[in-house]
Structures are given as structure tokens and as C-alpha cells.
Amino acid sequence: MNLIEFNSIISSPGHIEKAHINELHQIIESYPYFQLAHFLHLNGLKKHHSFKYNDYLKKTAAYTTDRAVLFDYITINDLDIHPAPKQEQMIPETETIKPADESYDADDVSPEATLNVGAPLQFKRDESYSFREWLQLSEFSPIDREEDMVEKDQSAIRDIADAPGRKRSQMDLIDRFIANNPKISPSLSDTYSDATFDSVTENDNLMTETLAHVYIEQKKYKKAITAFTILSLKYPEKSSFFALQIEAIKKLQEK
User: Fold this and answer.
1) Which of 30, 52, 100, 118 has the fewest CB within 10 Å, making it most exposed?
2) How many domains does the chain have?
3) Which residues contact 204 (CB under 8 A, 6 or more apart)?
């Protein structure tokens, strides 16, 4: 990509072509801190409904000095995702869930297709909370504090035992300590409540379909089900649609 082409994309980011995406990616590989290239690359993925968009949104945020600027960029009206062609749409609208064809069977549709898993997340101007949630780690691995602490203590004791000039009585004491393999109880409880999510459930304004899909992409299925349940109560006219979403999430959990 030459300078003229790059300037053309800057002036008309809504007209970025698929061929430009790889070229912008090459620029990013060479200049990883070139924020504008990251933004344009991200916009290209979004415009062409790439399954890579969601992951690259996190990567772009990592190289962005001010994430508020990134959020403003991806929610500019001129850069919103254009409706995909009908043959590419994976989720029918609420009103078209039951087609005229009586041979249609909802069980034939995969839960991934029903939930549109992998599709670019469409954040709106008032969904900054959903955006921040997406930038969080999808999963947290619990820390085995007890095993970690015991291993460190035993390692430290062995180091002491290897030191020259130690008295025999001290060595015997150390040997007995290691042989007993003492267990140290963790001082912190492994159980915790997600106070942030609790505050969201109490504030209906923060609960959106986008947030529900954020949880799906992060594989936080319980939170996604809770989100759709709240949305069903908030928008009873779409309760049947949300019920289908919940059923699809449960199928994903079974996989």
C-alpha cells in the first residue's frame, strides 16, 4: 500500500475494501504502535463482517493510549456496520423466526447460528459499559494458594538445608518438617461475588443485547442467560426472541 492509497482510506474509511485489510495488517506488523493503522484495520474487519473483528478490537485497545477515543471511533454513525446480505445473515429478526415454510425446524439451526457467535459486536454510543466488559479477560483461572504456598515454603527450607555449616539438630528438624508435608490454609476465600455484575442487574439501563452477546463471546453463559432473562422482562414484546436465545445458550453449555 502506497501513501496515496493510505490517504484515500483515511479520507473515506467507510469505503475500505477487503484487499486493504491485509495491507493494513502488514503495516501494523511493521509499526505496531501506529494507532491510526489499527483503527482503519479494525474498521475494515467490521465493515466486512469478519469473525476476527472481536479479537482485534481487544488488540487495538491494547495499543490505544485513550480507549475513549477508540470507543468513539467504533460508534461513529458513518462507520456503523451496514446490513449484511440476506444470505449472510445468521439470525432472523424476531418477526421472522417462524417462516411460512412448515417444514422449518428450529432444531436444525445450530446454537452458534441462532446466537450469531463470532459476528462483530455492535456497540452503541450509550454502551460504554458493554465495551469495557468486552475488554476484560474472558476467563479467570483460580489460584491454588494452598499448594503454591506449601511449595514455596518447602523450596525455601531445602535451600536452607543445603547451606553449609548447619547443625545436625537443625537438619533433623527440617527433615521432619518436610516429611510431615504441612498444609497451610489460604487466608482468602476462593468464593466471591461479582459485585460489578450485580450492579448491572440492578440497573436495567446498562443491560443490553450487546452486553448479553459480549458474555456469550466470553463464554460466560450464566451471565448471558441472566442478561436475556432481564431483557425479556424489560421488553416483553420480544420475550419469544429472548427465549430462543436462552435456549440456544443452554445448548452451547451442553457441548
Assistant:
1) 100
2) 3
3) 230, 234
State the residue for C-alpha cell 527450607. 157
CA distance 137 to 114: 24
Angle between helices 35-47 and 53-62 (to 10 degrees): 170
User: Do 129 and 219 belong together in one domain?
Assistant: yes
CA distance 117 to 51: 9
Q: Are residues 122 and 239 in the same domain?
A: yes
Q: What is the pLDDT of residues 72-86, one digit of tens each?
A: 888 875 444 444 444
- Judge if 132 and 35 occupy the same domain: no
How far is the C-alpha of 160 from the C-alpha of 60, rounded, in Å?
Answer: 48
Running DSSP on this structure, what letter comes out for residue 77?
Answer: G
CA gap 90, 13 in Å, rounded: 26
- Is 109 a domain residue? no
* Residues 154-180: tens digit of each pLDDT: 665 555 555 555 556 666 766 666 667
Give the residue carrying C-alpha cell 504441612. Answer: 182
**In this structure, are 13 and 73 located in the same domain?**
yes
Q: State the residue range of the domain holding 149.
A: 145-180
Does a structural domain hold residue 93? no
CA dihedral angle for residue 105, residue 110, residue 113, residue 118, rounded to 10 degrees: 180
